[in-house]
């Protein structure tokens, strides 16, 4: 070529010439790239048209040439292009997920109605015609997601160990793809999270998600797991250069349909790259039969949509032992959940098997607890469990520790928990064998020399020396089984209470061969019995004290508050009292009543109730009752007397909590002045009607140091009956206090008789069930001319 240049026509070598050359080369590359893309698009479209021809051939029973002519005629008749009509024809014939999703994909207003159908079917054709996953990613980007604004497509494959490999990409540079070619396990990525959750992820803005991803760090992302036959093969990731809105459910289903398109090609890539070929069913069965552990060979059960619905027990090996004792014939061929319904639930066997099958990650646990039937008794047993996937099958292998291996461990635990140590002495050689627990009973190290049985008297308390000698004499001289209990003195001086049981081992001639027996450390039981005995003595003493206090409280109560006193008359008033103490001594209460004629010729009437029971309540009743009598001598009104009485109750050394009613009746005027301290108000019976007096303000006694009590006056009329009572007369469990008081008003209004009969009637008809004292004071107003 240099011979073609002459000196006068030498090419320019300046910067402008080099720039022009680069521009021409860049334009050539872009032109070739566009031609390649158009060629791919033309090929994808041609594949879709050929698929539509095949549908016509099958439906019309014609040849390829006639099908091509029919395609032109029909597309022209409906006013669409060959490609658009081919897409509609395939949709009608397929009735698949793409057909269902066609109407849900967003489209540009200027696009024809079937643009989405053409796009998806062309994508499908491109995927089917693609030779590798990388071409699939380009077809998805070009035909399916570019119309919705996406610019990046990545297809990941998932390894059994949690690794991710970039199998195909479009819309990113080669250097970016090389950087994300392999993602090791443990690295948090969007694709990894979708695999772990086994669900799609939709990220409106990658920058706010805080997770790295290909073609980051911002923009929207759709990450959809790729599955086939119930197994997870990888992930389809679609990216937008800008944040996206929250997508509706129908759009998410459309992208899941795209992931299904990628599944077959991705599976083909993975199969072609796997070095060893998968074992056949016969080889899997031979492998299971050669194992000495219990093996379940499971196969997936898929529903009509190809989703995982469960597992079938395809084979059980000859060494299989069913935990529930069933034969192999009853297990083989059954569904896993039908054979083992308890394997369902979070963290149980079915969930583990499903995870292994879907992800390919093996599972191993040692130990796990299984339930086996021994006879008809279910017993938990320890087993090692292994679950792995082989192709489309799942191996479930478990190894249960057999009874011979379990019994020594169980025996060791029983000896440790019971403080039991065994021994055997060879009579001929003198060899002594101890279990490890017996060294603990004697307080010796595991390397110490065992103590011969003949030396037992040297280790027991001196007061039990002869008892130990008798034990050895029965065992060694008379050749009889013997038992005894001793206080064993350890080398460090501590004392243990032990029980020894031993028996001689004789040959047929009666000669002594060996001595076998056990020691049991019963110290804990001994000291527990002593503690229980002491506790029993203390409880008996406490019961005696409680009974004595209850007896004294009852005597004090009966001495001051007799159950019934004869009615009295004074200044035109007739007054009667009824007191019904509780029948249980330990519930002796502090109800009190009092009727006193004061030096001023006025009459003090009071009723009260001490909080609590027992001797404290009885003595508190005496304190407040007597204090109120003394305060009444001052001539103060009821409110002032209760104020002073509250100071008596609020004693820092011994506070008394009580409710009370205090009334002072003036015979000259017939006026009752009264006040209350948290007590139920009196009841007035007049002319066949009964009602409770207004509730005056007044806090219960002893609650605070200083408080005031409201007073009220009541003009009593001839034949009025005034009732003061404690809550033990009316209160009933499960019923409001208002309802209880209303019943008392009804009983009081409906009775016509003497005052004494009235009070007896109220006590006899009381339905109170609180096991509390009941007290009622009745005042009947006579004629006014009886007053002084």
From TrEMBL:
<keyword id="KW-0378">Hydrolase</keyword>
<dbReference type="InterPro" id="IPR029016">
    <property type="entry name" value="GAF-like_dom_sf"/>
</dbReference>
<keyword id="KW-0805">Transcription regulation</keyword>
<feature type="domain" description="ANTAR">
    <location>
        <begin position="29"/>
        <end position="90"/>
    </location>
</feature>
<dbReference type="InterPro" id="IPR036388">
    <property type="entry name" value="WH-like_DNA-bd_sf"/>
</dbReference>
<dbReference type="Pfam" id="PF13185">
    <property type="entry name" value="GAF_2"/>
</dbReference>
<dbReference type="InterPro" id="IPR001610">
    <property type="entry name" value="PAC"/>
</dbReference>
<dbReference type="Pfam" id="PF07228">
    <property type="entry name" value="SpoIIE"/>
</dbReference>
<dbReference type="InterPro" id="IPR000700">
    <property type="entry name" value="PAS-assoc_C"/>
</dbReference>
<protein>
    <submittedName>
        <fullName>SpoIIE family protein phosphatase</fullName>
    </submittedName>
</protein>
<dbReference type="InterPro" id="IPR000014">
    <property type="entry name" value="PAS"/>
</dbReference>
<dbReference type="InterPro" id="IPR036457">
    <property type="entry name" value="PPM-type-like_dom_sf"/>
</dbReference>
<feature type="domain" description="PAC">
    <location>
        <begin position="482"/>
        <end position="534"/>
    </location>
</feature>
<dbReference type="InterPro" id="IPR035965">
    <property type="entry name" value="PAS-like_dom_sf"/>
</dbReference>
<dbReference type="InterPro" id="IPR052016">
    <property type="entry name" value="Bact_Sigma-Reg"/>
</dbReference>
<dbReference type="InterPro" id="IPR003018">
    <property type="entry name" value="GAF"/>
</dbReference>
<dbReference type="Pfam" id="PF03861">
    <property type="entry name" value="ANTAR"/>
</dbReference>
<keyword id="KW-0804">Transcription</keyword>
<dbReference type="InterPro" id="IPR005561">
    <property type="entry name" value="ANTAR"/>
</dbReference>
<dbReference type="InterPro" id="IPR001932">
    <property type="entry name" value="PPM-type_phosphatase-like_dom"/>
</dbReference>
